[in-house]
Specification:
2 domains, single chain, alpha/beta, Alpha/beta knot, 60s Ribosomal Protein L30, Chain: A, 11 strands, 22% strand, 7-stranded parallel beta sheet, 238 residues
Length: 238
Amino acid sequence: MLLEGNVSVKAAILGNHRKVKKLYYDKHKNDKDLNFILHRAKEKGIPCMPIEREEINAMATGRTHGGLVGEVGPRVYQELSECMHGKTPFLVLLEGVEDPFNLGYIIRTLYSAGCDGLILPSHDWASAESTIAKSSAGAFEYLNIVMSDDLPQLVKNIKRQGVMTYAAMRKDAITYLEADYRKPCLLAIGGEMRGLSSAVRNEIEQNIYIPYANDFRNALNAASAAAVLSFEVYRQRR
């Protein structure tokens, strides 16, 4: 598969979550960012092929590649243990989000807020990885991501390791500002269409909600909720 543009390609090289096989770049382009990427690629033994811009246009899906594409292998996902480093891991479980653009936006937010690991239900994202990488501004290549066939069991395992679990749900909830995120925690967030499954909800210890400024009753989308909640975790831990 191909990643397009400086941001995605650089993140793949620096993130170490996938094999970068070869770079193709505009032979007539010369700028600081591209030169840095080529330098790091050559340090890692990645072949860098100078070609005409028209050839890159033919390879890429659009015209936003900026004169650089990377031929890469599949993204390697992590084990839960790789996300539990440090004394206070901050994890997020996301369920019911299937749009790659939305997933990319959420990943960008979570990585910026210091999330240690994102947990997703098992799914083949291979055909959408380029879109996720681009919409996440490269954060998809840095954030630890765990795929699970059994989310409820994984939540049980996480609780056994002393992690407090919260779900973005209004039923029997406290406001998100009342929770103490300075301790190890997991936030479970569902997509706006299906939300969290009952099996996952049954494993959660405390529901939290985001209060509104008026009587609006509809839920925020998952990307907005993730932004509000994850940056409150960051604020409390500063």
